[in-house]
Specification:
Elements: E1 3-9, E2 13-18, E3 23-28, E4 31-34, E5 39-42, H1 46-63, E6 70-75, E7 78-82, E8 85-86, E9 89-96, H2 99-105, E10 112-122, E11 131-132, H3 134-139, H4 145-168, E12 171-178, E13 180-183, E14 186-189, E15 198-202, H5 212-215, H6 221-232
The structure holds cytidine-5'-monophosphate.
Length: 237
């Protein structure tokens, strides 16, 4: 599949059109950004690790019945995906309180949430991705009630699959962000699933194995991502 034009240059990925109007190529770069792009660094191997990791997770989700845009890995840093029409919405599920939830609600970091909680955010860097609710989505026509129901169902289904997958490998899935889009009238999971967009803690020590290592300047960022991949049995060159 040949790359054509640059379609989207995101903070960590570049998306290209291809010869097939229904397919795109996602290129995972080494750029790592936090705080709405205020902190950016190049981390060796990160693009390759995230590309492999994402492919592994997307395949697990597909096997469990979650429709995803993932088609195939093309090379170390690129994958072929369906060209979705994305909703401007981020879906977050939290099993353990951390990050913005702790800052917003003043709850204890590390508090287990039973049942897990769910939040919608608007994808808008200028507004710092504000939290929104179902009514906002309907009133501003960012999605339909059917989209809302499907996003919640699928995001929780992902939780069932991945919480177990990570726990079996000695890790706690603290929280994660998903994005969805339409393809030929059906809702699919788009974007990526990698340690850039979730929180993962070692189940015994609670050591952080995700992008919080970068946000908080803890070091060993890619080493932690590689450890997560290794524990899951993701093959890395
Ligand atoms: O910052 P916050 O605690 O709301 O993030 C919740 C989860 O969503 C974290 O795992 C974070 O990495 C992810 N996230 C993301 N992209 C964003 C916002 C949050 O991947 N723009």
């Amino acid at each position: 599949m040949n790359k054509r034009d640059e379609l989207i240059v995101g903070k960590a990925k570049t998306v290209y059109t291809t010869d097939d109007p229904d397919k795109m190529i996602m290129h995972f770069r080494n750029d790592t950004s936090a705080f709405d792009g205020e902190k950016i660094e190049q981390l060796d191997r990160k693009g390759m690790v995230n590309n492999r990791f994402n492919a592994f997770i997307m395949q697990k989700l597909e096997e469990a019945g979650v429709p995803t845009h993932f088609e195939s890995i093309l090379n170390d840093q690129e994958s072929l995906v369906k060209r979705l029409k994305m909703l401007p919405i981020e879906c977050v599920v939290r099993n353990i309180a951390s990050g913005s939830l702790v800052r917003r609600l003043g709850v204890e970091d590390g508090l287990e949430l039973n049942p897990p909680t769910f939040e919608f955010f608007l994808k808008n860097d200028d507004l710092h991705d504000p939290m929104i609710n179902d009514y906002h989505i309907i009133s501003f026509k960012w999605g339909t009630q059917e989209d809302i129901d499907a996003m919640k169902d699928l995001t929780f289904k992902v939780n069932d699959v991945l919480k177990k997958l990570f726990l079996d490998a000695g890790m706690l899935l603290v929280d994660y962000k998903l994005e969805f889009g339409h393809f030929k009238g059906k809702l699919y999971l788009g974007d990526e699933f990698s340690p850039d967009g979730c929180r993962l803690w070692d189940a015994e020590t609670r050591k952080k194995l995700d992008k919080d290592r970068f946000r908080q300047g803890l070091g060993g960022v890619v080493e932690a991502y590689e450890e997560v991949a290794h524990r899951l049995g993701v093959e890395l060159p």
